[in-house]
Amino acid sequence: MKLDQIGFWSEIKLEIIKKYAGAYTSIMKNQSWCKGYVYIDAFAGAGKHISRQTGEMVPGSPLNALEVKPPFTEYFFIDLAEERADVFIELARENPNIHSYHGDCNEVLINDIFPNLGWDTFKRALCILDPYGLHLKWETIKKAAELKTVDIFINFPIMDINRNVLFDDFAKAAPENIARMNAFWGDASWKELLYKEQDTLFGDKQHIKLEGYPTLAKEFGERVKNIGFKSVPEPILMRNVKNGPLYYLYFASQKDVAKDISKDIFNRYKKGQK
Ligand SMILES: C[S@@+](CC[C@H](N)C(=O)[O-])C[C@H]1O[C@@H](n2cnc3c(N)ncnc32)[C@H](O)[C@@H]1O
Q1: Is the shortest distance between the CB of 79 and ligand 1 below 6 Å?
Q2: What is the pTM (predicted TM-score) of this model?
Q3: Where does 5-158+212-270 sit in CATH, by number?
Q4: Mean pLDDT throughout 68-73?
Q5: 104 lines ligand 1 (CB under 6 A)
Q6: Where are the domains of the chain?
Q7: Which burial class, exposed, middle or buried, applies to 43 when counting CB atoms under 10 A from its CB (0-12, 13-18, 19+)?
Q8: Of all residues in the chain, what percent carry a pLDDT higher than 90?
Q9: φ/ψ of residue 50, rounded to 5
C-alpha cells in the first residue's frame, strides 16, 4: 500500500491530537458515571506515514490513539479506501475493542456510530475529522454537536478551498467544487460572506471576492458554536514550508475544561514549543 509523505505540519497535528487524547483518557478514567470513552478516527488513513523531514516511518493518528495511556475503552476507524480500511479490519480481528469500517465516514458516523453515543449511554467520545480536502459534511458535524457527548478535532481544508473555490471571480469556480463547499459549510451562505455582486461594463453581474479565508475560518468557528458546541477555541493555522496556508485545526467540545486543555496545547504549538 502506498503511504502518504507528510510534512512537519502534519507531524505537529499528530502530536497535538496525541497530547489531547492522553489528557482526555486520564480525565475520563476517573469519571465513575462514565460507561466508556471512545476514540473515533473518521478519516483514519493508512495507519502510518513517511516523514518528509526524516524519511522515516511515522505512526498515523489511529496508531497513536492505540498507544495512549490510559487506553480508550473502544476504537472506531473509518476509511473510504478499501486497502486502508483493511489495515484496521485486521487489527479489529485481534482486539474486540477495535471496530473498523470501510466507507464514507459521513454515512458511517451518522448511521452506525453516533446512534450508540446518545446522552443516555453515559459514553463519551473523541472524534477526529481529518480529511485531505472538502470531504467532510456539515450534517456530520451537526449530528456530533446534537449528541452533546462528542468532542471533535476538525481539519478545515483551506488549501482545497483556496485552490478550487475561492477565485477572485466566483464564476471561475466549477459547480462540483461549489457543491463540495456547500456540503462542508452546510449551505451557500459563505458566498454572501466573501463575495459582492457588481455590474460589469457589459451590463452583466459579476461576483467579486472581497474577503478571504481568514473571514471564512472565523465564521466557521461561530457556526460550530451555534450548532451546540459550548467551547470552540481559536484554531491553529498550519502553513507549509513556503508559509502557504494549508488548513486550520479546530477543536470543539461540550466542556470548558476540555477547551482549556486544548487551548493550552494549541498555544504551546503556536509558540513553536512542544
Ligand atoms: C489526511 S488522511 C488521514 C490521516 C490520519 N488522520 C493521520 O493523521 O494519520 C485522509 C484519509 O481520508 C480518507 N477519506 C477520504 N474521503 C473519505 C470519506 N468520505 N470517508 C472516510 N475516509 C475518507 C482517505 O482515503 C485518507 O486515507
Answers
A1: yes
A2: 0.95
A3: 3.40.50.150
A4: 98
A5: yes
A6: 5-158+212-270
A7: buried
A8: 84
A9: -110, 130
